[in-house]
Specification:
The protein has about 250 residues and is mainly α. Helix content is about 55%, strand content about 5%. It has one domain. It is globular and about 50 Å long. This is LysM domain-containing protein.
């Protein structure tokens, strides 16, 4: 069976990765069976329900090792076998069903949102914990440290762990995220920000990205078409309102 990696470099966003259904299951496994201090009871329940739905659908479509994969997820130690089994299970599920599973299960709110989030936090992140930081920032950081401790410094730079750095950046406190963005901009790794989305987050045109990466718009469009399923499973390219940066 062909092994599609659970995490792939984003075709238009350097330093970010696309995560397919198998990758989402691996992330959910860490939330469901990792350090309980890094999530909430609601978060664990949502993640476990997602894993159970994934295993149920995979088994219904011919996957024979659901028990083994579930045991590896509960052990919460990253391994090539766990990654390969998650990928095999995903490949048993029809593509049109994969995106629906993510939409119906993994995108569920982990914490009830009785109040609007703080102004510095867009609506698609968890309510900050007692320390004012999204819990997934700490979860990603601790996961990186576990990989470093178990497999060495070089291991954290492998593609399969790229999603941890993407999560670390996505859920970082606003002040830290600004420092990282400023440094990346100083190094010429991201385009000049000219527009933002409705939450005030930077958005970039294909022309801007192509110029920064030293490629062409046509090449970016080709990559978008090549990875259309993965991009759609992640919510698709941003097509909402944009506003000039004030």
């Amino acid at each position: 069976m062909k092994h599609e990696p659970p995490f792939k470099p984003h075709p238009t966003k350097p330093g970010e990765y696309l995560c397919n259904l198998a990758g989402s299951v691996l992330i959910a496994g860490d939330a469901a069976y990792g350090d309980p201090a890094e999530t909430t009871p609601e978060g664990q329940a949502v993640s476990r329900a997602f894993i159970e739905r994934f295993l149920r659908e995979a088994t219904a479509h011919g996957f024979k090792q659901a028990g083994t994969l579930h045991a590896l997820l509960r052990r919460n130690q990253s391994s090539a076998r766990m990654i390969n089994l998650a990928t095999d299970a995903m490949n048993c599920i029809p593509k049109e069903l994969r995106a629906r599973i993510i939409e119906e299960q993994f995108n569920a709110r982990l914490v009830p949102m009785e109040e609007a989030p703080a102004p510095d936090y867009p609506a698609d992140v968890l309510r900050p914990g007692p320390d004012g930081v999204d819990p997934r920032f700490w979860a990603a950081g601790h996961a990186i440290e576990r990989v470093r401790a178990e497999h060495g410094e070089e291991a954290i730079h492998r593609p399969e762990y790229g999603r941890l750095f993407a999560e670390l950046h996505r859920y970082a406190p606003p002040a830290l995220k600004k420092k990282m963005s400023d440094k990346a901009r100083e190094l010429g790794l991201i385009p000049q920000t000219t527009h933002v989305d409705e939450h005030g987050r930077p958005v970039y045109s294909l022309e801007q990205i192509a110029a920064t990466l030293g490629t062409t718009v046509e090449e970016l469009q080709r990559l978008n078409a090549l990875h259309a399923d993965e991009i759609q499973a992640m919510g698709g390219l941003y097509t909402g309102p944009v506003h000039p940066l004030q």
